[in-house]
Amino acid sequence: MSEERKLRRVGIVGYGNLGGNVTSCFLLFQTHKGQYLSDMILKEGSHFNLELAFVWNRRSEKMENNIPADLQLEDLNQFKEKHADLIVEVAHPQTVKEYGEEFLRYADFMVGSPTAFAELETETRLRKAAETSGKTLYIPSGALWGAHDIQKMADRKTLKYLKVTMTKHPDSFKLEDPIKELNEKAREKRTVLYNGSVRSLCSLAPNNVNTMAAAAMAAHNLGFDNVHGCLVADPSLPDWHIVDIEVTGPTDEKTGQIFTVKTTRQNPASPAAVTGKATYGSFWSSLLLCKGHGGRVFLC
Predict the structure, then answer these.
(1) What is the pLDDT of residues 154-211, one digit of tens each?
(2) How many DSSP H helices and E strands does the chain contain?
(3) What is the pTM of this model?
(4) N or C terminus: fewer CB in 10 A for the chain?
(5) 8-142+279-299 and 147-268, same CATH topology
(6) Residue 85: which of 41, 44, 112, 53 has the closest Cα?
(7) Alpha-carbon Rg for the chain in angstroms
(8) What are phi and psi of 163, to 5 degrees?
(9) Please, what CATH class does the domain formed by 147-268 belong to?
């Protein structure tokens, strides 16, 4: 008799409530993903060699009638008892800062809030934790087209410049001042809300720039300070999110020609949605890639 195949156990950190009263739009978006991933694993997980190890949410009552009682984790500090092979964070950047290092001691860790790494101390700690434990720190590429190519160039130190421009309807941005005030005025014409380093932008637009944070992690030879982010509010785009990526590589010493790549991703989105419709499927595909890639950061 052949040996029974061992299922890969996945813990989900963040669940929330699809139709409830959620005060933070960031939490609403992230916990939508938590529900989506939990439901997918419960319904389809066995087809992909996956099973649900646990689901944790700040308010446990949100999981009632949806998550079996034995899979509801009341105290996140007890996650070790569930023996997860992979932990997926879809809660909040603060969760990454507080628990990420400990998660990586016991499991691979997929970070749904990479804006947490705009804090250099957090990025340094978690990179080191992955290296020490041999577990993989996964960063989902989301809307970042060409993420692996960017990372390969960074590995070879041939990546010289990277800019990510995100254009959305003003209602799709969830921002902090001072760019929040600027966005509220961007109802009549296309307006550039921000153009500068991704590190400075993450605290101003934590709901919207996970794609840019993923880009900064991929472009590790440039980092958060030297990857450029641009936010554009365009009232003529109620149903689309557009992501433009500009990459500059090495210059040919003989000809002076410069390697460049420019891509445009147009993602259908519901009016006022923080994320586009394709992102949930992309996140699930990223999870399926998290099968252990050693003690390093891996774009998935």
Answers:
(1) 999 999 999 999 999 999 998 999 999 999 999 889 999 999 999 999 999 988 899 9
(2) 9, 12
(3) 0.88
(4) N
(5) no
(6) 53
(7) 19
(8) -130, 135
(9) alpha beta
